Amino acid sequence: MGKFIPYILLVLAIGILSYLYFSSDRSSASSDISEIPAFEIETITGQKLNTDDLKGKVVLINFWATWCPPCREEMPYFENIYKKYKNKGFTIVAISVDVNENFVRDFVKEYGVSFPVAMDKEGLSDMYGVSYLPMSFLYDRNGKLIKRKIGAYFSLEEDLKKLLSLH
Q: What is the pTM of this model?
């Protein structure tokens, strides 16, 4: 039992820090995310991505973390959906709130994630008012918010078919 104490303490520390981070005052959060806000981020592969790159596409912006069980569950589903619909005008931007970029890189490699993944260095989670993980925002081709989803988003394909006019 003694050899598991460091792991138990680590899990408790992550839980406490997560609680403090996500329950903190989000007074700087934008109350209006009805349109994709202007931003520029750098993905973990070094690619610059900004709002202009997303114009004319159906976009899922997903906030997640490697330590979040529902996030880990939905990532393979997102990857399948991305592969299926990326050539039809759909993209995903996954923004990790992890502190350690190496954990994110390892996760992306292990899960074979091919859509853009970035670290939340620019404070987008604050702008979006993220207080739970995972949290997703689905925008239509005009950049208008269609759906905000707290928790795993396993109904994404249904919503996409409507937005991409695929019946």
A: 0.80
